[in-house]
Amino acid sequence: MALSSRRRYRPVDYWPGFVDALSTLLLVIIFLLTVFMVAQFLLGREVTGKDTALQRLNAQIAELTELLALERSGARTAKDDLSSMQASLAAIEAERDRLKADAASGADRAKTEGGRANELSGALDKERELSAQARSQVDLLNQQISALRRQIAALEDALNASESRDRESQAKIADLGSRLNVALAQRVQELNRYRSDFFGRLRQILADRPGVTIVGDRFVFQSELLFDTGQAELSDAAKPELDKLATALLELTKDIPPDINWVMRVDGHTDVRPTRGAFPSNWALSSARAIAVVQYLVSKGVPPQRLVAAGFGEFQPLDTAENEDAYRKNRRIELKLTER
């Protein structure tokens, strides 16, 4: 009579499916945000490195500019000294010419002024020597100024090249993010298609099987179909149903391309009542039941890297009421095809 009652009244709770769909969408959005943040982090690190190089180049330019200013100041000082020396030279030559003119007026006066003329000639030669040294210094300063200008031009070229590379890197990062988003969307669509095909096969295999329902994107087995009360060892009645599931999983493994990283997640759930016996908590019981299902599927040839066992205890109920019907709904094993 209890079985007939369950068949007559089997309410369908769509809310968990809606929540799971939103959770899946949220996970996809979080993943996209994570990719975007990683791209932003890489871009930020790239830009930081470029900013550091730019600051270093600016510092070098400032240092060279200051050195150029000092060199220019020295050149101006040397030119001023040269102008002063040239003026002195002109005055000495004028004095020498005057003395030579005076020397022509008389021999005595010429003898008297002869020593003076010699002194002036020596001073003139010294002034010429100093003027030549000043010209050499000016030429050297001009050469240094030209070298500094060439260095500044080279630094400006390097800075422009660095800015160009930075723009290219930003464009590449943006293109990479766009292609990654497209590839991710394609993978999600492909996985959704295979998930739909897989659940379609399970519907055919387990059609009208009592204790098996579909909630959103998950297949749900009531625990009583697979385990005895308070136990984590599969019952004999559970194995034929799991054999059908293993066959469907093996076919799915052949169909899905190897580049789609998928897994079948087996989730164990219990009701809120405390456990009794070998398990210290509902968490331990739900985990042990999920592991038992996974181990059985592996024994039937399902690749272990395509299976995940998880225990949720009583913390993910389908029905929060405190009655036998709610307890029965919450004691379950859920199967969900998802990405790893």
Could you give a quick summary of the protein structure above?
With 340 residues, this protein is α+β, with helices and mostly antiparallel strands. It has helices at 2-8, 15-103, 107-205, 223-226, 238-255, 282-299, 324-330; strands at 212-215, 218-222, 262-269, 307-311, 332-339. The chain crosses the membrane at residues 21-43.
Question: Which properties best describe this structure?
Answer:
disordered N terminus; Helix Hairpins; 5 strands; alpha+beta
Verbal overview:
This protein is α+β, with helices and mostly antiparallel strands and 340 residues long. The chain folds into 2 domains: 41-187, Orthogonal Bundle (Helix Hairpins); 206-339, 60s Ribosomal Protein L30, Chain: A, CATH 3.30.1330.60. 71% of the residues lie in helices and 9% in strands. The protein has 7 helices and 5 strands. The chain has helices at residues 2-8, 15-103, 107-205, 223-226, 238-255, 282-299, 324-330; strands at 212-215, 218-222, 262-269, 307-311, 332-339. It has a 5-stranded mixed beta sheet with strand order 1-2-5-3-4. Strand 3, helix 6 (282-299) and strand 4 form a beta-alpha-beta unit. The longest helix is centred in the middle third of the chain and has 99 residues, at 107-205. The two termini are 43 Å apart. This is Peptidoglycan -binding protein. The chain crosses the membrane at residues 21-43. Residues 215-340 form the OmpA-like domain. Residues 103-122 are annotated as: Disordered. Keywords: Membrane, Transmembrane, Transmembrane helix.
